């Protein structure tokens, strides 16, 4: 396989930022990232594409950075789907032909199945079998966790990507891939929740006994916190986001005493000062509300008492000071910040990617590379950019006198010497 055919391009279209990445697996199975980009997102609300043209412009800008950095032309993209209509549904049946049966009977109008995750196998009625391969039996049944979403999510995403000039290679549900780069096998075995705090959504991925038991998204994230700050402090949205990122604390007790954030005057809005304590009070109230929804989902799953590895925080919103302490207090579980644990080749982007915000993007890329590797005839996703050569100028033809012309002129001149004029 040629080097360009080993490459895959992935894009994470978030509510606030769009990130793109181009990479491959090395011969020793490390992740080699050739290019990375991040631009501000337009046309996306709560993780869902709502304006095709604006979203396409964001995609085009992000991918063009990859192309310029590598001198490659990207043709296809792997992408992820977000949205509050991501759901989970259990399904049980005979393994043979089960995939088709599940797709026929488990889907409601307007839904599409994206992932079938086996959670348990049964051989001749014997339950709790993780791997039925090698076990003798007459009948194998299985229980699957079906992960589905509104089919409109993919339709709008596809239109935006195509309008940007690319093709959608394959799409994944974001909570399905987020744990790939940041969770160890031991954590998945013991029971763990990956909580991805985005700008427009909060993703939940719950693993137990090394199987994905729950994958969904809540329709709110960091943007509702910024909006609360805007309304509570009577400032413009840009300043609300700025003070949240630079001065915000998720817990009032952690905010420093007698310290204020300076809000500059702009376009008739008077400048003002906001105390860190008051700001933290607004943030904590909203974070606690989000965590109440998270707790409800965890308790409904039936696995809340089996999460031995606790909660791992990822996403750009995870950078809020003291968020881990609020999450631990609200859930009663151990909490840590997630960073990529996948082996990566030394390159320029390690520092940019070694953050909780990169979980989703790296997850999409890894699953895309695995998908390409499993294809019998993988289609190339990128092409080298061939520089067009300037047309060569035709050589200037010099006017040369032929030998016959010279002889002819010499002969004419010689004859004229002996020719007498008529008047003589």
Count the DSSP helices: 12
Q: Can you tell me the CATH class of one domain?
A: Alpha Beta
Portion in beta strands: 25-35%
> What would you say the CATH architecture of one domain is?
2-Layer Sandwich
Helix content: 25-40%
Distance between the termini: 94 Å
Largest sheet: 5 strands, mixed
Uncertain spans: 398-404, 413-424
Provide the gyration radius in Å. Answer: 32 Å
Shape: globular
The CATH topology of one domain is given as Nucleotidyltransferase, domain 5
Mean pLDDT across residues: 86
Q: For the largest beta sheet, what order do the strands appear in spatially? A: 3-2-1-7-12
Describe the structure.
The protein is globular. The protein has a domain at 184-338: ATPase, nucleotide binding domain (Nucleotidyltransferase, domain 5, 2-Layer Sandwich), CATH 3.30.420. The protein has helices at 52-70, 98-105, 151-163, 174-177, 185-190, 222-233, 237-247, 276-301, 323-331, 350-353, 359-374, 403-416; strands at residues 8-13, 17-25, 31-40, 44-45, 48-49, 72-74, 76-81, 87-94, 111-123, 126-129, 140-150, 167-173, 192-197, 202-208, 211-218, 260-263, 272-275, 311-314, 335-337, 382-384. 38% of the residues are buried. It is 33% helix and 28% strand. The protein has 424 residues and is α+β, with helices and mostly antiparallel strands. It has 12 helices and 20 strands. Helix 6 packs antiparallel against helix 8 and helix 8 (276-301) packs across helix 9.
